[in-house]
Amino acid sequence: MKKNQVFYISFLITMIIVAFGLAAPQPFAKATSVANDFLVNNFGWFYLISMFVFVAFSLGIAFSKYGNIKLGPDDSVPEFSNRSWFAMLFGAGMGIGLVFWGVAEPLNHFMKFGATEAAADFAMKKSFMHWGFHPWAAYAIIGMALGYFQFRKNAPGLISSVFLPILGEKGIKGPIGKMIDVFAVFATVAGIATSLGQGTMQINSGLNFLFHVPTTRIVQIIIILVLMVIYTWTAVSGIDKGIKLLSDINLVLAVAILAGAFIVGPKLLTLNVFTNSIGNYVNDFVKDSFAINPFGDKSWLGSWTIFYWAWWIAWGPFVGTFIARISKGRTIREFVIGVILAPSLVSFIWFSVFGSLGLNLDTNIISKAIETTETALFVVLQQYPLGIIFSIIAICLLGTFFITSANSGIFVLSMFSSDGDMEPANSKKIFWGVIQALLALVLLMTGGLSALQTCSIVAAFPLAIIMLLCCVCLIKELRKEHPKKE
């Protein structure tokens, strides 16, 4: 059996981190905290500039002369319908996060900055910012570049393949190429574990809030183990069966709770919030993209914007690779519209609906809701008709999003550690399924949400550099195609 260096090195690094976390939880939490403070204080500017570059580059390429180039041969056609394609990319990209933060984030910002009308405007604008064009552009960079090289240039499904114009065939198979792929694997594992840990905490908190199930590590371990069996099984079933089916279910549940929340909530306020926030978001887009508060306190920026940017970057290889895998036959313009513009609009609608549900309430209730982030959604839903039903749907949606993110991640990690094989062995999928669950448990036991956040930021830093270089590689190769497109 051919030795796979990326697989073994990635496995070794992950095991060292898991062992460190289990053997010395307090030093592990302290180490991630020190690394987080260092990166936020010294490289916050780098995250901000990088994410803006991803947005500008993606949209610029899509609406340029290169927009009609296909991710694949000129005669290739999409493998999946638009609905299933969108359902899979959206479920893999940020499903759990929307449920987790849809109510909690606007309310946290609102109370933090004085619970005034200006604070409400700020809260909604920042929520749009954190879940809009920037994160999806980070996914699009990897997805667009890898999809192009994988399907149009017949390169392996590895992040290192994108560096063919810079490193050449020998370079991408050498130490530098291996290092790029190892970074991608490790950051993917850390990024997925972050989201899975959050999802587990919120499922547990929701069950406690609704049915008095105790909020304990034992219960969280049971939740992760049960879902691990399901997400591993669906990953083994393949994209056409398990992953696609579950993504379609996600979409139905998400539309159901979104429509229901709009109907029982403050409809006029929601429409006004959506309209006003879109205006604020667009008007201040460039300014907010670079705002770093150089002469003041950066703690809020580090806890929110920098954390989010690092989170999305950490998820870039996984989601981007998965989106590339399901996007063969689509043009670059179609890809960018589907990956950036459409999901951003859904995020704006989601935050407008659920943010309005929370902001419409008395500040005493809002204060109670944000005492525990994991239960904020359930506290708010209880204030409206059919709240218990929507809460149960939300828990189901958390479970299905959890599974969708995990099984997509397993598939991608298996590709990364199988020399880019688009149909990796089931043994690899099972292996990474167990590793994901184990790492999520370690992070939960070594500091909860704080440790999850800091781990993502640390893992993301080298990937931001890799993603910027992906832009250079893609444009170098696209320029060779231009004469054919005139």
UniProtKB/TrEMBL annotation:
Where is this protein chiefly located? membrane
Q: Classify the source by domain of life.
A: Bacteria
| Alphabetical UniProt keywords | Cell membrane, Membrane, Transmembrane, Transmembrane helix, Transport
Q: Which residues cross the membrane?
A: 7-24, 44-64, 85-104, 133-151, 179-198, 218-239, 251-269, 306-323, 335-354, 388-418, 430-451, 457-475
Q: Which InterPro entries match?
A: BCCT_CS (IPR018093), BCCT_transptr (IPR000060)
Alphabetized Pfam families for the sequence: BCCT (PF02028)
Q: Where in the cell is it found?
A: Cell membrane
Q: How does it sit in the membrane?
A: Multi-pass membrane protein
Family indicated by similarity: Belongs to the BCCT transporter (TC 2.A.15) family.
PANTHER family linked to this entry = HIGH-AFFINITY CHOLINE TRANSPORT PROTEIN, HIGH-AFFINITY CHOLINE TRANSPORT PROTEIN-RELATED
Q: Which NCBIfam families match?
A: bcct (TIGR00842)
Q: What is this protein called?
A: Glycine/betaine ABC transporter permease
UniProt gene name = opuD
